[in-house]
Amino acid sequence: MSAATSSQYRRRLAWKQPWIWPLVGVVIVLIITIIVSGRSPASNIEAALQQGGIVVMLGLGQMFLITAGNGNVDLSMPGVITLAGFAGIDVAANEHSILLGLLAAIGVGLATGAVNVGLIQGIGIPPIVATLATGLILDSVILSVGASSAVTPKALHSFSVGRFLNVPNVAWVALGMSIIAAVLLHKTIFGRTVVAIGQNRKAAVRSGLKVRSALMACYLISGLCAGVAGLLLSAMTGASIDIGTPFLLVSIAVVVLGGSRIRGGRSNVIGIWVGSILLNVLLTLFYSLHLSSAYQYIAEGVIVVVVLAGAADREGFTQ
Amino acid sequence: MSERPSKVRDRGASAPERREPAGRLARAAFPSGLSGPSSGGAVMQALGRIDRGPLLAVAAAIGLYAWLSVLEPDALSYQGFTLTLATTMPLMFVAISQLILVSLGDLDLGNGYSLGLANVVSAIILPKHALIGFGALALIVVAYAGMGALVQWRSLPAIIVTLGASFVWLGLALLVAPSPGGSSPAWLTSLANWNPPLIPLPLLVALVVAVLGTLVVVRLRAGVMLRAAGSNPAAARSFGISIGTVRVLAYTAAGLAIVIGGLLLTGLTQSGDPNASGDFTLMSVAAVILGGAEFRGGRTPVVGAVFGALALTLVSPLLSALSVPSNYQTGAVGVVLVLVIAGRRLLQR
């Protein structure tokens, strides 16, 4: 076979997809699960989708920012998750309306996103520091309001842990958000602008794209995703002060695992699903083996670094 | 702007065939401006080259301390100073570690947890098996060197490598110490609580780190290479500097600073806690930014990072003295950070 045809042939193969190695990882973990437990891994997959749905929503938010490159990232996400959980559940319980609760949670996210944009575009603070500062401020707000938390309304709790067609409701919500995100990213001028900014910001500005408003929208989207995820997460387990903390690392990790280019300019929505399912089937496996969470952390960290190192050749991370 | 070292050109031009392009390359590597050689001794020369960036952190630290002293006159005593600022020592070293990476254009999003690992290793293993303990601490340094190599030779973004590594640090720390506990070796306790004559220990450490660090960065070949590699890697490379070597050495130094910080933390708290030091990551970023470093690299304001750490440590006792509920303390750090950068941006205009 000549070199040309072989490369054409390769291009058609699924394993050229950037998320193929994480997918292989999922299969390996599931095989280990079957061997170890001797049962079908269906319940593990379901548990992974429950928690994974939340992670997907967060990953989508980070994906828009990471795709826009230039150091854009949302470090205030854990704060939004936690505060949106408190606010959403509080409003839902007091006003007896889940819709109002959802609006409150989204409001927290959008407000935080707006503050982030103000700091970044208004004052010129680098995104990492700006969102870090907003996150610190949110932590204080959470500590002040956290003492007065309402009981999660029953309907909201049973929705958040419920299933439809054997798939957790949370995963359906995440699927809906993923489809919207994919359409936004691939089919709209806004999406193309975000990708263009990530590939070459100067060129995007010169070609007359609305760079500033696109970036603004990215931060608002990130806040919105974190708000929805925060409400559902808190509805699942009850709002608590540090519920969002573990999700910062994970939200960025799934974007990278899924094959989005970490320096921006290329993104992959399906990859976010594969990445978050990988991390969560692993978590469930470790849980069913009664292993300490220590091993789970080590495995997650090693996976992120190894997948990244393996992907580097094709991805061309250098600028 | 800052006076950039004539020394750089001298060293770079030491090989005769490089003499001609050296000046041009030095200008390319240090775009922030060059001027004639400064006179005076080594320290004065070093001081002359400090840019205005760190001044803000120094002013913030002094200003906050003055404010605190007005509210709590005891803070001005030797013992008051030591008590108020003791906790700054670990943060100072974590900030230095962060600064080394930031000056290369990298960022360590896991140093809170690597500090936690150094903390539990020195609190759990070190008191019982000194040799194994030191071996484990050395392995942390080796792991940092490994991260540097990975970032360099696989062209990986440092943020994600250090983020992934932070999971590993936390996991290892939890294996060593599933729950907080342990104790500090006697020598470490007395070292971290040493009362030197006249100057309180935190201030002494701050001054020594600031002066030594600045001298290393400005005078030593390693420091010059670090700044060149961070400022303009392409120019530095054509200058004969191996970016890979610089990065691995820089990560090694960063790991060493983390281990020192972890030892000091153990000496001060007398125990190891895998989860207690997660906040150090964000605080170290804040300290470095307060100190005048820039994310795109090339700037190494050691004085700024040290005093940035001091200033951030002061926020908490100051708010206590003002009887602000402790809930607002982390938020205050965020507000300070925003105000500082906003102020700096306004001054630059």
Summarize the structure.
The complex is a heterodimer of chains A (319) and B (349). Chain A is mainly alpha-helical and 319 residues long. Chain A has 14 helices and 2 strands, in the order αααααααββααααααα.
Strand % of chain B is under 5%
Unreliable spans of chain B are: 1-40
Mean pLDDT of chain B: 81
The total count of helices of chain A amounts to 14
**Which protein chains make the most extensive interface, counting residues with beta carbons within 8 Å of the other chain's beta carbons?**
A-B, 50 and 45 residues
Number of domains of chain B: 1
Helix content of chain B: over 70%
Report the CATH architecture of chain B.
Orthogonal Bundle
Total DSSP helices of chain B: 17
Q: Give the helix proportion of chain A (percent range).
A: over 70%
Q: What is the CATH T-level topology of chain B?
A: ABC transporter involved in vitamin B12 uptake, BtuC
Q: Order of strands across the widest beta sheet of chain A?
A: 1-2
Helix/strand-derived category of chain B reads: mainly alpha
Termini distance of chain A? 34 Å
* Low-confidence segments of chain A: 314-319
Largest sheet of chain B: none
Query: Which structural class fits the helix and strand makeup of chain A?
Result: mainly alpha
The run of helices and strands of chain B is HHHHHHHHHHHHHHHHH
Structural domains of chain A: how many: 1
The best one-word shape of chain A is globular
| Beta-strand percent range of chain A | under 5%
Structure explained in plain terms:
The complex is a heterodimer of chains A (319) and B (349). Chain A is mostly helical and 319 residues long. In chain A, 76% of the residues lie in helices and 1% in strands. Chain A has a single domain, classed as ABC transporter involved in vitamin B12 uptake, BtuC. Chain A is built from 14 helices and two strands; from the N terminus they run αααααααββααααααα. In chain A, strands 1-2 form a two-stranded antiparallel ribbon. The longest helix of chain A is centred in the last third of the chain and has 27 residues. Chain B is globular, with a radius of gyration of 20 Å. Chain B starts with 5 loop residues before the first helix and ends with a helix. The chains are: A mainly alpha (319), B mainly alpha (349). At the A-B interface, helix 6, helix 12 and helix 14 of A face helix 9, helix 15 and helix 17 of B.
